[in-house]
Amino acid sequence: MAPISKMKVTELREELLKRGLDAKGLKADLVARLDADNAARSKIQSDLVQAQSVEQQDLLAQTNTAMATAPETADAPETEPPSLVDVAKVTDAPALPSADLVSSTLTAKEESAPGEVVPAATADAPENVSKAASAAAQQE
């Protein structure tokens, strides 16, 4: 864009209309209006940059404080990963079937005649699963 003082009246009016400003008056009025709008936009831009800089400084200070107060990971005691039973308790997920239940199901399938339908688990399977989960939790 050319310097405002060098613009023609029609160009000044077009620019004022683009910005939603009044486009009526003499060239001197139009130039003054555009200059004032440019100054206001410049101030807003400067304030925005300053606000972002302050926010970034605050965030940096918070991060530095958090890092300074955080315990060192090398000094932290090592912990074992949670067992499947612990995960099931936290997530409310059903526990995995016990090895006995899986083994008995496999044995039943192996002993069945070809084409015979064998249930995947017995009627007391949920009870076996909860017993297995309780037993595993007690072992830990």
The major β-sheet equals:
none
Span of the ends, CA to CA: 76 Å
Portion of residues in beta strands equals: under 5%
Q: State the low-pLDDT regions, or none.
A: none
Give the CA-based shape.
Answer: elongated
How many beta-strand elements?
0
Computed over alpha carbons, the radius of gyration is 38 Å
Structural class by secondary-structure content? mainly alpha
Number of helices: 5
Report the average pLDDT across residues. Answer: 74
Helical residues, percent: 55-70%
Oligomer: single chain
**SSE run:** HHHHH
Notes on the protein architecture:
With 140 residues, the protein is mainly alpha-helical. It contains five helices and no strands. The chain has helices at 9-18, 27-69, 84-91, 99-111, 125-139. Helix 1 (9-18) runs parallel beside helix 2 (27-69). The model has no long low-confidence stretch (mean pLDDT 74).
What labels would you give this structure?
140 residues; mainly alpha; 64% helix
Set out the fold topology.
Elements (H helix, E strand, L loop, with lengths): L8 H10 L8 H43 L14 H8 L7 H13 L13 H15 L1
Helix pairs in contact: 1-2
Brief overview:
The protein has five helices and no strands.
